[in-house]
Amino acid sequence: MTQQNFLQSVERFIDTATQRVDLPEGLAERIAQCNSTYTVRFGVKLRGRIHSFVGWRSVHSEHIEPVKGGIRYAPDANQDEVEALATLMSLKCALVNIPFGGSKGALQINPADWSEDELEHITRRFTQELARRDLIHPGRNVPAPDMGTGEREMAWMADEYRKLGNSDAINQAACVTGKPVVRGGIEGRVEATGRGVQFALRAYLDHADTAPISGRKSMDGLTVVVQGFGNVGYHAAKFLSEDGARIVGIVEHDAAIFDPNGLNVDAVASFRNETGSIGTFPGAETVDSAQGLTHMAADILIPAAKENAITAENCHDVNYQLIVEAANGPITADAEEVLTKRGILVLPDLYVNAGGVVVSYFEWVKNITHLPFGLMDKRQNATVGRAVVTALEDIAGRPLHDQQRNQIARETSEIDLVRSGLEEIMIRAFDDIMRCKTAQKVDTLRMAAYVVTIARIADFYRAIGL
Ligand code: GLU
Predict the structure, then answer these.
(1) Mean of the per-residue pLDDT values of the chain
(2) How many angstroms separate the alpha carbon of residue 422 from the centre of ligand 1?
């Protein structure tokens, strides 16, 4: 499958969904296409010569501004991929009801080819190019981390944006999200997408109208294979194992490891940090990466790498009951048809991996309000909590257990608020998906999510008379 199929798959999902929504003529086309894609080519003098780089920033829809979405550093990045990802960003923001349009960016680069200093230089040049066209701007276009980028790159971008000087100086920290906490970031942003995957799966299992997985409506004992062990895959695997799931397989680009008794996620991460690969992890069976997705049947697969992991070629051979799309676009539209016929359920990307952008929204709000979350009511809540403990102890005539006291009188920190806000948003969005699925008799969770989101975007356009 080529990258082109990713964009085509997203367009096909949109086409199918728009047929179910009553749209003004021509609007379906607007929703299916990106409004603009800017290609940037720039040179950076490194190692005694000028090296050329190419990158993109695509804006899918400005129905709400700022537009939002990550910047990917990858050697195979290309315009079609960036446009598909920008489109998905609009859909996911609308699905979880956060006030952003969709955008996405990429730089065609293998970060491993460059030193940290060189990457900083390249990132700062890229930022200058984007800033010149307001493609990085706190009120217009707010990048974030994606594959190959993280807190470090976001800190460089924010700093370069600040140095360039701009009219909206008081809000400049909000020009990107995913910054280190000491540079205006928010607790819980690094884990956010993995945390969102956990909340999405919990929301599925807790919902009254969803089918059980292997007869269970709880995570306990469910077997899980995770594909991709980067930031998203690692955190998802860690949080699901904390909920009682058994991680029986981890599939990476260079090797896959399996243990039917369950892998210790942190031990695998440490082993990979030491050796450079998960392959030959002690006690596990190591197999070729290409066989990773089909090697062992499990209750759940979590593709957490990138698009086109499950295609028309391998979709007949995967054996899972539920696929939870932590990556963007891991299942092509062709493959999804086959999976549906085979009775394999798919929890779709635009819902499952929205945790990243949701916590980015919290960070952006924190930056533009200039007020840390929970500051105003922290003391007040702690005082009320302590009063409740005292009253309960008076009534009971005995001290509460430490755990009870901590639950009632504990001071809430930023990370507690971030996690509770994210969980609320994920539960609400899943309820919206299920309501639509039942009311409109939609076959798949993906289609229900697309219908919800397209109806919402259409409402925005209608309200402004477009
Ligand atoms: N790159 C992430 C995504 O694809 C996060 C985007 C953001 O936080 O703006 O959803």
Answers:
(1) 95
(2) 14
